[in-house]
Every structure is written in structure tokens, then in C-alpha cells.
Specification:
By secondary structure, the protein is α/β, with parallel strands linked by helices. It has a single domain (4-154), classed as YbaK protein, CATH 3.90.960.10. The protein is built from five helices and ten strands. The chain has helices spanning 4-12, 29-36, 68-75, 84-91, 136-143; strands spanning 19-21, 43-51, 54-61, 64-66, 108-112, 120-123, 130-132, 134-135, 147-149, 152-154.
Amino acid sequence: MSIEPVKAFFKTLDQDYPILEFDQSSATVELAAQALGVIPGRIAKTLSLKKDETAFLIVTAGDVKLDNQKFKAEFGFKAKFLSPEEVLHFTGHEIGGVCPFGLKEKLDIYLDVSLQNFTTVFPACGSRNSAVELTFEELELLTLPVKWIDVCKMKTE
């Protein structure tokens, strides 16, 4: 996919956030952190999950992973990730460029409190080589989340 739907989304909000495009891939947290020269925690990764026949997104810091017990306590069911085909179908973005902006369908979006550990974070912008720098307050304004949640834990080696 491309960053065009994200640019169009920002334009509808009369916002001109500078989208960063890289010569190299930023499709994983590690690659994005390397491309940006930041620690992995500042990469805002978008997790694509399913509930029944629909999808929803959780945006988290890059240095955490989903905690199954916290997730089940919050949502009342076991986490199930979308397949790459389902991700593209629901979001309009391919894996590696998934972001909570410029979505193909309106999806519920949740923001994990792990994002609040940083002054700014870098979500992707619809392509495997793009990002935008946002405060978590800006991310909240752009995504209009259902709510802030706490469903992650630090990654362990």
C-alpha cells in the first residue's frame, strides 16, 4: 500500500504532519528504530486483532508485547491476530505499514498505556518505509480511541 490514504486522512483533519519516508524498510520495530535512530520503545506498533467477524486495533510501544492475561481481563476473550489477508482487508494497509490512520474501514482503536512512557512516538503511515512523529496526545486526537488500556508487558529476551 501507500501513504496516500494517510495523507488524505491528515488533510481531512486540516493537519499537515510531516510524514517521513525512508530508503530502507521500516516494516518491523527494529528496522523502524534503526531508520529513525531511536530506541525501539518509541516505535508505535499497531496490532490487528479480531473479535468474531470484525477487527480492532491496539497501538502499543515497540518494546512491549501483548500480555494474554491482561488482554483477556480487558476484553473477555483470548487474543487472536488477523491474518495478513485480513489485515489488508480491514485496514487497507499491508503488514509492516499498518497504522491507525487512513483506514479502509472504521475500526475500534485502543491505545496502550505503554505509549505514555515517551514524549513522542513514531507510528507507521501505511507503507513499509514510512513513519510520523506524534505526541501521545496527538495520537489520541488522530485515532479517537475507544479508551486507553493496559494490556502489555515488557518483552523478555
